[in-house]
Amino acid sequence: MEHYYTGLFNYIEQIIVLPETDKASIRESFKPIFVPKDTIIEPAGQIPHYHNFIVSGYMRNFHLDKDGIEITTDLNEGPRFFTSYSHFMNRTVSNESLHCITDCELLRINRDEVSIRAEYSQTQKDYTIQILQRHLEEEKRRLYDLAHLTAEERYTKFLRQKPTLVQHVPLRYIASYLGITQRHLSRLRSQ
After folding, report:
1. In CATH, what number is assigned to the domain containing residue 92?
2. Is residue 84 a part of any domain in this protein?
3. Pair 51, 113: CB distance under 8 Å
4. For residues 3 and 165, what is the distance between their CA atoms, to the nearest angstrom?
């Protein structure tokens, strides 16, 4: 199970050096779990209970539009933190579901444990803020791209930034994430 934690430590240490006391705290508070392919780990309509770190695998956030069609709003692979952030932090009911597209190895921490660990950790607040800022910037860029780039430009950028997702994630999720139809994405791919 140590490989679960090594991935998390490497991810955080791209931002800040973790003292051994914080590494020990992370080992105590983040629980490793294996989630089988095509599992919803946090359904919409509930308060998200866990902050997840993807050690391996592919996940997405999605919600249903007014016609009941799934809209993929986030699509990622490990190593990365992944949850419905604002709902998790504010303990509010989420309109999003978290879906393990493939088998996933995760580290999870519950909301109460996050608060407890923040009291004692030398670095948690610093790296949490920086990671959250990084995710907010990614989301701002994605929304900008949806508004200003053509479908072809969005797909080309997606291929450049997330090339392995195309090999492991169904096209319908990628198309939804890019804001285009699956048919249009198939046409772009054939070109």
Report:
1. 2.60.120.10
2. yes
3. no
4. 22
How many domains in the chain? 1
pLDDT tens profile 49-93: 998 999 999 999 999 999 999 999 999 888 988 888 888 888 999
Q: Which domain holds residue 65?
A: 2-110
Is residue 170 assigned to a domain?
no
CA distance 173 to 165: 10
* Cβ neighbours for 98, distance < 8 A, ≥ 6 positions apart: 40, 41, 42, 48, 52, 59, 60, 61, 82, 83, 84
The tens digit of pLDDT for each residue in 22-47 reads 888 889 889 999 999 999 999 999 99
The whole-model pTM stands at 0.86
Beta bridge partners of 97: 62
